[in-house]
């Protein structure tokens, strides 16, 4: 069986094991996240590949370094301070400590998720899963909304995040 089969040309079938797609459910995290950018989203990994992709991305972002004032901080802290105006006046040490707590919480949440069976599949156009096509752009993987639900959700999420400042 191919990773992506065509049921018909209008609505292809996507395997939950297809590494070319990131598949999420719309939902809420159990914990509240202010610093961890993954946790501010309402996109919850739905497949093993997506879970691993999210965990690897978080780890890569944390490995990067930002200089904030006289302090060097990990990438999640640096990006959060730049993107969330509510964090810009807070003490850096408090933000770093909170990020470490949030990181532990979200890794535990992600590892505890009930995931879809890798042997199953879903129609690309559906109203249950957010599906992003993963494409290489130079050396970076870019996630592009692959169905109508994902495109609408993506626009709504950007508006929501801009409106709350987180």
Structural summary, described in words:
The protein has 166 residues and is an alpha+beta fold. It has one domain (4-164). The chain has helices spanning 48-63, 75-83, 92-111, 148-164, and strands at 4-5, 13-15, 21-26, 43-45, 65-68, 71-74, 121-123, 130-137, 140-145. A four-stranded antiparallel beta sheet has the order 4-3-8-9. A three-stranded antiparallel beta sheet has the order 1-2-7, with no helix packed on it. Strands 5-6 form a two-stranded antiparallel ribbon. A hairpin with a 2-residue loop joins strand 8 and strand 9 (140-145). The longest helix is centred in the middle third of the chain and has 20 residues, at 92-111. It starts with a strand and ends with a helix. Residues 1-7 have low confidence and may be disordered.
Largest sheet composition:
4 strands, antiparallel
Number of folding domains?
A: 1
Radius of gyration: 17 Å
Number of helical segments?
4
Net shape: elongated
Properties at a glance:
single chain; alpha+beta; three-stranded antiparallel β-sheet; 166 residues; 4 helices; 9 strands; disordered N terminus
